[in-house]
Amino acid sequence: MAYAVCAILNTEPTSANLNQAKDGHYPDVPLPRDNTTSIDALNVLRCVQANGYPNSTLVGLEDGGFLAFLPGVEEAFNTSYVRNVSACNSIYGHHMLVSIQSGTNFEDDTHPIGTLADIISAQTRIDGIARATRIPRIQTDLQTTSSQRLERRTSSYYYSYMADDSSCGSYEMFIDTTDMCQDNNKNSFASFRAENPSALYKLDLTLWPHHDCLKGGSHTYTLSPKYTMPCTKRKTYSWFGALKDDSCFGANPSQACVTKNVNVYTGIYKAWQLIVEGKYS
To answer: How many CB atoms lie under 10 A from the CB of residue 182?
Structure first.
């Protein structure tokens, strides 16, 4: 069932003037934690509101246990709408699953709860939100371990598991370079999951139901360091990941961050592409 977002009044913030604090800020004392995701969710919602999120933003529960945000913009990718949710979830979410959807309607797999203002005012406790799972095996990220000495890394990598079926039963593993539009598949995938091998930096992963990474309609997920997200059913042609200290992470980077590195499907794979791009089947 589609759910339309309320019209955003002109007096409410836009992506251009949302608070640009480095890691988000919170001007008040958060609600005391009780180790439930419902209280953590309220603190995340209060945080994004304090950082300028529109009160008319719709909040919902996406299949898989994701707290979903619908700010009502045509394309949320690489805007403050994503950055603020990502930052607030890092502070108050404790590895809670969150997503940011583009457009004016929730996708069919998302159950609407209410507006940001109404949920905060009523202190509505949203049940069913899940947390990401820590990666069980040891991963090594040589670039990340030395990245504190660098200004901004050009790119690193993350793991994506793209499947033709809806339950990740038959998947292809990709070791994807960050800051690159991954668009080298002729056909769409039906489901995916992802892992963030970085020990220090969160990952923002955005997916599109079409080629090119630039046509709108994005769906973004945030993932804590050394954590993995569950299998998620979503039609996907192209995707884009960035770690927090990458040059393309955050609000409104240059469009060149997407267009300069596009991993385009050509119909054939060469040996060097299999090695550099890390594509395994």
So the answer is: 25
